[in-house]
Amino acid sequence: MLVLGVHDGKDSGVALLDGGKVLFAANEERYSRRKLHFGFPYLALERMYQHTGVQPRDIDAVTVGFEAMVEDSEAAYDYKAEPRLHQKVYSVLVRSFGPMMNTEAAAYGSLQLMKLMAQNKEELKVNLKNQGITAPVHFMNHHLSHAASAYYASGKRDALVISSDGGGDGISGGVYLGRNGKLTQHATFSKLNSAGVFWEIITQICGFNPERHGGKITGLAAYSSGDEAYAILSELFGFCARTGGLENRSQRAFNDLFQLVHKKVEHLDIQELSSGAQRILDEVFRCTVMQAYEKFKIPHLALAGGTFANVRTNLVIREIPGVESVFVFPHMGDGGIAMGSAHLYLGSNEGLPQEEIRDLYWGDQWSEGRIEAELKATPGVMWKKLDDPADAIGDALARKEVVGIFQGRMEFGPRALGHRSILAEPTDTTMMDWLNQRLARTEFMPFAPIILEEDAPDYFIHYEGMKYPAKFMTICMRCTPLCKEKAPGVVHLDGTARPQTVAKDVDPYVHAALSAYKRKTGLPLAINTSFNKHEEPIVGSPADTLSELKRGAVDVLFLESFEVRKET
Fold it and tell me: Which domains occur in the chain, in start order?
C-alpha cells in the first residue's frame, strides 16, 4: 500500500511509504531555499516523483498530521506581534475560564474551534487534486502522529511514548503507550501548559527567533549556574503531578504570558536565563518520565515533538534510574509529521513492525553525470575525479582544512549526517569562533563530533545505552577523559557532546574517510556540522555547495568522487 504523508505548514514536506518501507522523504526548504518553508510542498513532491518513478495515480492514501491547523506562517510564533485570531480567542477563554482550560473537555473544545477556523483542509485537498492525486485524504491527530513516528521507529514492541511541542490539535503533547503495534493515549498536556511555548518564550526573550533558535538556549545554559533564573521561573513553571507535565502556574497564554515572564526576568543576562530555563525543562520531563515509569513499568522511551530537539533534556531522561533506552525520532519537529501521520495510518489499519531505522538517507540523489555537468557549467572552480576520495578527505582534515561533503541520498531531518555535511578536525578549541564566522553563524556550543562507531565507546560514557539515538545526533553524551584530551573542540563546557556514529555498512563513504583520517592522525572522529550558512537550509544541490565553496565557507569540496577547489 502506497501512503503519501503530506505536511503543508511549518517545515512542510512529504514522505512516501510502501507499507513499512520508506521510499522517499524530504522537506520543501531544501528545494525552495526558504528555511522552515511554510506552504504546500510542490518541489518536494516533484522530486519524489522523479526519484521514485511513482505517479499520482499510484498513491493509495494521503495522510496529514493535523486534524486542524491554523498556524500558517512564521508570524504565529512571534510573541511580541499582534496575536493571531485563534490566539486572541484562546487568550479570552483562558482569562474567562482559567483552570478549566486544562481539562480534556477544553482540549476537545479547542480542537473543534480550530477546525471551524482552519481553512487549510480544503486548500490542501485542492492542491493535491491539482497535482493529480485523487486518493482519499486522512487527517490524523497531530500528537498521535508525533507519537507514531517515534514508536514505530523505536524498535521496541512495548514503549512509553511522549510527545511535546508548542501545540497542535488543541493540546501540546501527551503520554502514550505503544504495545503490540498499537498506540493508546494515557495523558494529555493542555495547550495552556505547553513546554514548547515555554521554550519559545524564553528564546524570544533572549533575543532569538523563537521558532528557529531554541537550540541556542541549550548551548547557552552551560555558561551559568542559573540559580536566580531558576528561582524566578519556578514560581511560573514547574511539574504538575495531576497532569503529568509542565504546569503554567500563571494561567496566562501567548502574548499575555510573554509579557509576564519578560517583566520578571528582564534584569537577567541571557546565559543566566537560559540555564534556569534548561533546569526547569529537565526537571519537568524527569518528573514526567518517572511518574509514567512508576505507573506502567516500561523501561523503553520513544520521544517526538519539537521539545525533544533539546538534546540535554534527552540525556537527563536517559539517566533516570530504570530507563533502559531512549529513542528520539530524528525529525522530531513538525517537519517530521508527514512521516508520523503515514506511520499512524498504517499502524492503525494494516499494522507496522516496530523496527529500528537503519538510516535517514531518504531524499534524492545526484548522479555523477549530473554533478560533472554542473561542474563544467560553473566558472571559478577547478576539479578532478578521484578513484576513491577517502584518502583525499583524510589528508584535507589532517591539513586542518574545512571540508564540504555532498554524497549519496539527502538526509531527512534537521541534522546533517555525513551526506550534506561540513567536516573539520576536532582538536582546535578556537574552532567554534572562526568556523562560525565563516558560516555566518552565532552559536554558543561547540560543533558536534562524527565518529567511527567502533571507537565511540572510548570517547563517550555509557555509549552502549545510547548507541541507537547516537546514529542520528539526537542526544548528548558525557565525554570520557580521552575525548576531552584528544578532541577538545567537540566538548562543551558541561563535559558533553552530541555525537553521530558512523557504521561501515550504513555509510561506507564517510566511514572510509574517517578511517583514513584515523590512519593519518590517530583520531577516529571529526567535527560535523550542517552544510549551510546561518538562516539558510542545508544545501540541496551541487550548485548550493559550489556557491558556499566560492564564498569561502569550505576550503575543499567533495561531490561524490569529485574533489573541487576554488581557482587560484
Answer: 2-144 (3.30.420), 147-331 (3.30.420.40), 368-566 (3.90.870.20)
